[in-house]
Each structure stands twice: as structure tokens, then as C-alpha cells.
Description:
The structure is a single chain. The protein contains 11 helices and 14 strands. By secondary structure, it is of the alpha/beta class. The termini are close together.
Amino acid sequence: MGLLEPRVILDRVVSISEAAPLRISLPSPSRRRVLRRRSDSTRRAAAMASAAGAGAAVPQLERRALGNTGLMVSCVGFGASPLGNVFGPVSDEDALAAVRRAFELGINFFDTSPYYGGTVSEAVLGRCLRAVGVPRSEYVISTKCGRYVEGFDFSAERVTRSVDESLARLGLDYIVKETIPAIQKLKDAGKVRFVGITGLPLGVFTYVLDRVPQGAVDVILSYCHYSINDTALVDLLPYLKSKGVGVISASPLAMGLLTDNGPPEWHPASPELKSACRAAAGHCREKGKNVSKLALQYSLRNNEIASILVGMNSVKQVEENVAAALELSSSGVDEGLLQEVEAILEPVKNQTWPSGVAQT
């Protein structure tokens, strides 16, 4: 009936998601190319950062409450899958510079997984965090378990071992029918503070939340279901709110569909969906605009979603994404262009693809 993949927040949130990996979020105790062109707002953001050295205040990203966890996360989150080289090689120098810049511009939420690049993303992010030296209490990390390079494994033994392996790679000493009890034990042991679930099929969330005690799941992470081409998540928001669950949305660029360069070859979208997104990107270019920026700003407008995760692997991408968010808060989105792009994408609205392992 759906797919399930666990999720964990280092610092501490754990989730189970559709046929994908268990997501572990590790908060502190106390797939995608983005905005390839540097816009005027990006230059302003860079200028503001430079001014900070001269004593000027640098505008910070909005922080939003993550459900009932007590965590406040930046409205733009740092998706670290690109650090696993899933979209192409990324040097350690570029990765470190991107993470450092993210902190400078107010990003405090980072998402990774042992599946991204076969543990490379976790390892690289861990090295970057240690090198930057920001106090652990000042950021939240989300990772996953359940899906690995060798396949899916939701057994209690593998989930428990996966959390310890992720902690070691990330250089952390805590993280946020068989899988949930295993995570609950980790929570009772103090290794996990919050529990969450993640997956592509939205039915996974209701399936799990209707079958576990109230409060057993703190957070859900949905991806590719809240952007210009797919807003299916909206219908689920009232239900999630009634369950007291925090909401994170990832991949506002639909894993590369809403970019000038287009998606990677392995993207599972249909030819029809790829063609429509390509047309939308072309329309934006003709107007001198960027479809990625428009998609990110569209996703950020909904305050019921705590954070929008965007894949980043360079200082330029970090600055462009933050600049887009700051511009949205000061001058809003280009409504005319948005309506035109929505019209182009209407024939494929909410079209998705299979993902994960069959739920039993």
C-alpha cells in the first residue's frame, strides 16, 4: 500500500519513511541544482555578508517551529545529498566552504543519509561540521536508516547499528512492528530525542500515524510533493497538524526537474513530466528569470511547513538560496510569472513516480 523509510534527526529526530531509509534527526540537546545564476539579490546578500565584517547586521533566515519538538529550524534547510557526489563530484574544499557559508547566513538545519553516495554524504558533512567548529547546540542534523547501498533493511538490529554508524561518521554522540520499537529503545537510551518518518508516497504518513500512539512520531519529511508542479502535500497538512506533527518539505526543485540544466539521467519522472518542466524552465529563461528561484520561493510561502530542504554543494548555491528566501520576505514572489508557469505545468500537476519498497 505504500512505501516506508525511517528517518532520524541527529540532535535528535528519527523517522520511518516509505520504503526508503529510516530517517534520523539529530538536533542539539538544549537531489539538485539550485539557482545557477547569481541574481541581483544574491549579490546584495553577499554584499551584506561583507558588510558584517564592518559591523553591519546580516539579515538572518526566518526560524520556524518544528511541530511540538521545541526546535526552531531555518526556513531553508541544507540538503547534503550533493555532498555524496550524487549529482557529480564535489571537492572537500567546496563542501566545507558551502557548509561554513550556510552557518554564516543563518541555516541551522542539515539533512543527510547513509544512502547518499554510499555513506559519503554523512562522512563529508561530519568532517565539515568538525572543521567549522560551530557549537553542537546551534544546529540540527537529520539523517536516515533503513535504506543502504546494498538495499533495504528495517530490522531492529540493522536500525540500531545504522544509528551508531551514522553517529560515528557525523562525529556526534547522540541522534535524534519492528522498526518503531527499535527507535523507541534508542530514544529511551538517550540517543534519539525525536522520531520522524519520511517517504515519497504520502499515504505512508497516515498509515503509520494512524497505527502508533499519539506522540510516537514527532516529525514527517515529505519530498517532491510541495512545489509548483506538485502540491499534494497541502491536503495532508490539516491531518498532520491534528497529530501534532512537525512538517519538513524537501526537494522544491523536484530532484532537478525545475532547474535550467534539467534532471539527472536517473530521474524517475515520466517523459511527459520532464517535458513540461523543461518548458517551464525555458519560459522563465525567456523572461530573464530562473525557475529554480521561483520554485523555492513558492515552497517557502507556506508557514505550516517548518523548513524547505534544498540540495547544496557550493557557496554560490548557498548564497542564492538564502538570497531567494530573503527576497521573498521583503518583496514577495513574482505572481505573474508564477501563474504562467503554473499554467504550463497544469497538465502534469501532482504527477509522481514509484519509490521505495512495497509496504506490507
